[in-house]
Amino acid sequence: MKFIPTAVSGAFVVEVEPRSDERGLFARTFDAKSFADRGLVPVYPQCNVSQNHKRGTLRGMHYQAEPRPEIKLVRATRGRVFDVALDLRRDSPTYCKWASVELDAASYNAFYIPAGCAHGFLTLEDDCELFYQMSEVYVPELARGVRWDDPVFSIAWPFMPGVINERDAALESYSQETSL
């Protein structure tokens, strides 16, 4: 596996190193020791799946607040998505910066998103599915979010979303005076 740093401190694109032969392909997609050796979380007590029917579906920007912020390891298991990590850690050198990666089921890549970062994605084709490994269990009262189109961040989405649920559309703009 390769761990490629992004524009957000502590966020990495995780690429696999597939081996192919006459039988097909084999690739290690997760190795706890490789993660731990880099100081990354190697244990994920909760996993989630997100299925999205239409191209242009936007989910985000979500995070879980203290005292149980979550680290996410996100992978497309079907389709392609534009995936974004947004740094909301006030003490981070990349505070209010964002990084993106195209997650593609055909490449088996993943996005490691550190605690204190909001996460969101836009589907690039119909019938996409994401698999999330989570470092914390979901705590509804700690669930938070910021607007996907907030000018404070100026995320360069590849196109305007066509599908956003009411909850995400109603998220408020971020105030830099607001702390996690």
What structural class do the secondary elements suggest? Answer: mainly beta
Number of strands: 13
How many whole angstroms does the radius of gyration measure? 16 Å
What assembly state would you assign to the polypeptide chains in this entry? single chain
Order of helices and strands: EEEEHEEEEEEEEEH
In percent terms, what proportion of residues is strand? 35-45%
Shape: globular
Instruction: Provide the residue-averaged pLDDT.
Output: 96
Low-pLDDT residue spans: none
N-to-C terminal Cα separation, in Å?
32 Å
What percent of the residues sit in helical stretches (DSSP H or I)?
Answer: under 10%
Strands side by side in the biggest sheet: 1-2-10-7-12-5
Largest sheet: 6 strands, antiparallel
Specify the number of helices: 2
Q: Describe it for me?
A:
Strand 3 (19-21) and strand 4 (24-26) form a beta hairpin. The strands form three sheets. The protein has a six-stranded antiparallel β-sheet with strand order 1-2-10-7-12-5, with no helix packed on it. The radius of gyration is 16 Å and the shape is globular. It is mostly beta strands. 32% of the residues are buried. The longest helix has 6 residues, at 32-37. The protein is built from two helices and 13 strands. The model has no long low-confidence stretch (mean pLDDT 96).
